[in-house]
Fold this protein.
Amino acid sequence: GQNIDQPTEMTATEGAIVQINCTYQTSGFNGLFWYQQHAGEAPTFLSYNVLDGLEEKGRFSSFLSRSKGYSYLLLKELQMKDSASYLCAALDSNYQLIWGAGTKLIIKP
Amino acid sequence: IAGITQAPTSQILAAGRRMTLRCTQDMRHNAMYWYRQDLGLGLRLIHYSNTAGTTGKGEVPDGYSVSRANTDDFPLTLASAVPSQTSVYFCASRTGDTGELFFGEGSRLTVL
């Protein structure tokens, strides 16, 4: 079956760095998305990786290893506004998105 | 402002009633989706449409129906609502197979 695993909740300190991991098993693979979702709001796009390696975008970076079925989202210089859920989603062979349940990130002062 | 509009944003509904959630996009995206989001379960696909005139079933289609008469509109209908359909519903669209999803603001539905 198809499956996405990510931690349910993580806690980090303002100003620090946090890495949110995601492992996936899908029928075929056409890329990996990360979305951010603040409480009570819609998800918003953060990144898309289809090739192995690290993609950096400001304070946020996303890494993909296709051979390991693994991705992570790295958040640097954490701010209180980064408190949100982070959703990992893999694109399968039919270009359908398979979603993880999300990781709730709590930032403490 | 270009994007996706959902209506209503919130609704309380008696069990057994019929309800249609509206979704309109002005980005001319071919593909549109309806998801429900429940605590601890993440986003689950209800129905999708790859282009106007076609629809498909997602992971949890039972009790729901959709139509796609044109590119812009993708309404979701609950023919006879049940309490287990209490959820937050998100409509989304994307431009191509690997394009990012754009989400509407969500419709919070409570079925009593």
Q: What stands out?
A: The radius of gyration of chain A is 13 Å.
